[in-house]
C-alpha cells in the first residue's frame, strides 16, 4: 500500500469535485475547494475521521469493500477506480466489486434525483446505491451480503421481502423475477453467477423450482407498480428504467401522477425520510 500516493490521489479527486456534481448545495459561505472531507465520507458511507486519516496517509489499509465505496463516492472512472485499488495495495477488483462500480455518468444522473425515489441495481437485482427517498419508500436494500444481495434470492428465500408488494401481485412478481434470472443466466452462460444462483434456489425453494421448470421467458414488470408502505399504505407508482449496458446496471426511478392519492403519499414519505435522516445525523453528532 502506497499511503502517501493514495492520500494525494484522494485529495486531488476530492478537490476536483464540486457540490453540484454530486447533488449537494453549495451554500453561501462555502470556502472549501471542491468537496469537504465529511461530504466524501458521507457519500462513501464511512466516518469522516476514517476518511480524513486516509487523506493524511495515516490510516490502516482500506479493505476492498471500502476502496469500492470510496470509488463510488468520488465518482471515479473505471481506470481511476483500478488505480485506487492498486494504491491501496489490492489487485484488480474481484468480479463482485467490479460489477458494483457504477459509471460516473449514471451516478451523475442519480445525484440529480435526490428528491426522487431512485436506485441503481446490478444484473442479479443487487441494489448498489439508493437515494434517501428510495430508502424511505423501499427500505434500505444496500446492506445485504452474499446471495441475499439479489432481490430474486430474497424473494424466494425470505418471504418477508414480499411485504412491500400487495399479496395479489406476489404470484406474477415471482414469475417475472424468475424469467429475468433465466435471461441473465442465458446471457452469462452455465458457469456464470446467475446460473449458480438459479441452482442454489432450485435446491432451496420448491416454489422457485416449479416456476423455473415452466421455462417462461420474456416476462417483464409493467411501468406501473403497486407498493405497500407500513406508514402510508398502498401506492401506485410509475417506474422508469435507464439501462447502462456496458456495466449491466439499471437506474430505477419511482414517480406518481400529480393530484393522485399516491402522489400525496409519496410527498409525505419524502418528509418522513428527511426526518429520519435528520434524526440519524443528530444521533451521530451526539455520539461523536
TrEMBL record:
Transmembrane segments: none annotated. It holds the Pfam family MLTR_LBD. GO terms for molecular function: DNA binding. CDD domains: HTH_XRE. SUPFAM superfamilies: lambda repressor-like DNA-binding domains. InterPro entries: Cro/C1-type_HTH (IPR001387), Lambda_DNA-bd_dom_sf (IPR010982), MLTR_LBD (IPR041413). Residues 30-81 form the HTH cro/C1-type domain. PANTHER family: BLL4672 PROTEIN, BLL4672 PROTEIN-RELATED. This is Helix-turn-helix domain protein. It comes from Streptomyces violaceusniger (strain Tu 4113).
Amino acid at each position: 500500500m502506497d499511503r502517501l500516493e493514495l492520500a494525494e490521489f484522494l485529495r486531488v479527486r476530492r478537490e476536483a469535485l464540486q457540490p453540484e456534481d454530486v447533488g449537494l448545495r453549495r451554500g453561501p459561505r462555502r470556502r472549501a475547494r471542491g468537496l469537504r472531507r465529511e461530504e466524501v465520507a458521507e457519500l462513501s458511507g464511512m466516518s469522516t475521521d476514517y476518511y480524513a486519516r486516509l487523506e493524511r496517509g495515516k490510516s490502516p489499509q482500506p479493505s476492498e469493500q471500502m476502496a469500492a465505496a470510496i470509488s463510488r463516492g468520488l465518482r471515479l472512472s473505471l481506470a481511476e477506480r483500478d488505480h485506487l485499488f492498486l494504491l491501496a495495495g489490492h489487485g484488480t477488483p474481484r468480479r463482485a466489486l467490479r460489477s458494483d462500480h457504477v459509471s460516473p455518468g449514471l451516478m451523475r444522473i442519480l445525484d440529480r434525483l435526490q428528491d426522487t425515489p431512485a436506485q441503481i441495481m446490478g444484473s442479479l437485482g443487487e441494489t448498489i446505491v439508493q437515494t434517501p427517498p428510495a430508502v424511505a419508500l423501499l427500505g434500505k436494500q444496500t446492506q445485504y451480503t452474499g446471495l441475499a444481495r439479489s432481490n430474486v434470492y430474497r424473494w424466494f428465500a425470505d418471504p418477508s421481502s414480499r411485504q412491500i408488494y400487495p399479496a395479489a401481485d406476489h404470484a406474477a412478481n415471482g414469475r417475472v423475477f424468475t424469467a429475468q434470472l433465466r435471461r441473465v443466466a442465458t446471457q452469462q452462460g452455465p458457469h456464470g453467477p446467475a446460473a449458480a444462483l438459479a441452482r442454489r434456489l432450485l435446491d432451496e425453494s420448491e416454489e422457485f423450482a416449479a416456476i423455473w421448470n415452466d421455462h417462461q421467458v420474456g416476462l417483464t414488470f409493467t411501468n406501473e407498480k403497486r407498493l405497500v408502505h407500513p406508514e402510508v399504505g398502498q401506492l401506485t407508482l410509475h417506474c422508469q428504467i435507464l439501462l447502462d449496458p456496458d456495466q449491466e446496471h439499471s437506474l430505477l426511478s419511482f414517480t406518481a401522477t400529480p393530484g393522485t392519492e399516491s402522489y400525496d403519499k409519496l410527498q409525505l414519505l419524502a418528509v418522513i425520510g428527511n426526518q429520519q435522516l435528520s434524526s440519524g445525523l443528530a444521533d451521530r453528532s451526539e455520539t461523536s
